[in-house]
Write a structure and sequence with these properties.
This protein is an alpha/beta fold. The protein has a single domain, classed as FAD/NAD(P)-binding domain (3-Layer(bba) Sandwich). Helices cover 41% and strands 26% of the residues. The chain contains 9 helices and 13 strands. It has helices spanning 2-19, 32-43, 78-84, 100-114, 142-147, 170-179, 198-207, 220-227, 237-255; strands spanning 22-28, 48-52, 70-73, 89-90, 96-99, 117-120, 122-130, 133-141, 154-163, 194-196, 210-213, 216-218, 230-231. The strands form 3 sheets. Strands 1, 2, 6, 7, 8, 9, 11 and 12 form an 8-stranded mixed beta sheet that branches. Strands 3-5-4 form a 3-stranded antiparallel beta sheet. A two-stranded parallel ribbon has the order 10-13. A hairpin with a 5-residue loop joins strand 4 and strand 5. Helix 2 (32-43) runs parallel beside helix 4 (100-114). The longest helix has 19 residues, at 237-255. It is globular and about 55 Å long. The N and C termini lie far apart (49 Å). It binds flavin-adenine dinucleotide. Flavin-adenine dinucleotide (FAD) binds at residues 28-34, 51-54, 59-61, 123-124, 164-166, 170, 220-222, 231-233, 239. Flavin-adenine dinucleotide is lined by residues 28-34, 51-54, 59-61, 123-124, 164-166, 170, 220-222, 231-233, 239.
């Protein structure tokens, strides 16, 4: 039995790893926008892999606001919750309240059920840069990165890459810095996030979701960060709609 347990895990894990070394879409970060993008890409039949450096995907969605574990989702984003089977309670002025633990686990479930593969405890440390385009990711174990160990990474080629890393926009930053290129942002660089403004932040999250360099798309707070727009706190409709828009743009690019 002991041998079966170990063999079952090792054989299947390496099969999964092997099947995801060359994909249609590689997503960095398992926050709400990355998970929703993974769901729609997988639903469209694309081969999609998502890397999350923490043990549990879900990003900043689990904790609600100040650990009060409810979040707000506005009316425009409810079709996404309906499609993914997430339960919500109508509140006021079209806004709904959602239990953040229920919603986060539902996004993880929906993405993986649709066929996306999630690798947790992986840190994306760089991109593959070829022919003036982002062509994949360079990944390593998150604990290896945290310990600062000198261990070389693995490479994963991808037709499209999505940065959904949240506030830091670390992928966009390193693409611009290491390759000395200008991004499709107002400044040509990572402009950096502004202070909180809920209405503007929600609208601009979706507007700023785009391809910022050939092969590299941004979603969620990373989309706002690169374009210099507002944070918004524990309202999540913009994150969900941003993930859906990112998937649509990436599908169009993959399909050529
Ligand atoms: C811990 C945390 C606390 C937050 N607190 C606030 C807050 O107080 N106020 C506010 O307005 N917003 C906060 N946010 C962001 C907020 O939750 C967002 O509105 C929303 O969650 C953003 O969604 P997102 O899809 O952009 O990704 P996020 O929810 O930000 O998730 C990004 C994910 O990417 C992962 N990641 C980052 N870099 C890498 C990498 N190199 N390789 C692999 N995975 C990576 C992170 O571990 C995280 O799970 C927080 C986010 C996090 C992660």
């Amino acid at each position: 039995m002991e041998k079966l347990v170990s063999l079952g895990i090792v054989e299947n894990y390496f099969e999964k790893l092997k099947n995801n070394l060359s994909v249609d879409a590689a997503i960095v970060g398992g926050g709400p926008s990355g998970l929703v993008a993974a769901y729609y890409l997988a639903k469209a039949g694309k081969r999609v892999v998502l890397y999350e450096r923490k043990l549990a995907p879900g990003g900043g969605m689990w904790g609600g606001a100040m650990m009060f574990n409810d979040i707000i989702v506005q009316q425009e984003a409810l079709p996404i919750l309906d499609e993914l089977g997430v339960c919500y309670k109508p509140y006021r002025e079209g806004a709904c309240v959602v239990d953040s633990v229920h919603a986060t686990s539902a996004l993880v479930y929906a993405a993986t059920k649709a066929g996306a593969t999630i690798f947790n405890c992986y840190s994306v440390e760089d991109v593959i840069f070829r022919d003036e385009a982002v062509a994949g990711l360079v990944v390593n174990w998150a604990p290896v990165m945290r310990e600062g160990m000198h261990v070389d990474p693995l490479m994963v080629t991808a037709k499209t890459v999505l940065e959904g890393t949240g506030h830091d926009c670390m992928i966009a930053r390193l693409v611009a810095r290491k390759n000395n290129v200008r991004l499709n942002t107002p400044t040509g660089e990572v402009a950096g996030e502004r202070s909180l403004n809920v209405e503007q932040g929600e609208r601009l999250t979706v507007e700023n979701t785009k391809e910022i360099y050939p092969g590299l798309f941004v979603s969620g707070m990373a989309a706002n960060g690169v374009s210099g727009s507002f944070r918004m706190g524990p309202i999540f409709g913009g994150m969900l709609m941003s993930g859906k828009k990112a998937a649509e743009l990436m599908i169009a690019k993959i399909n050529g």
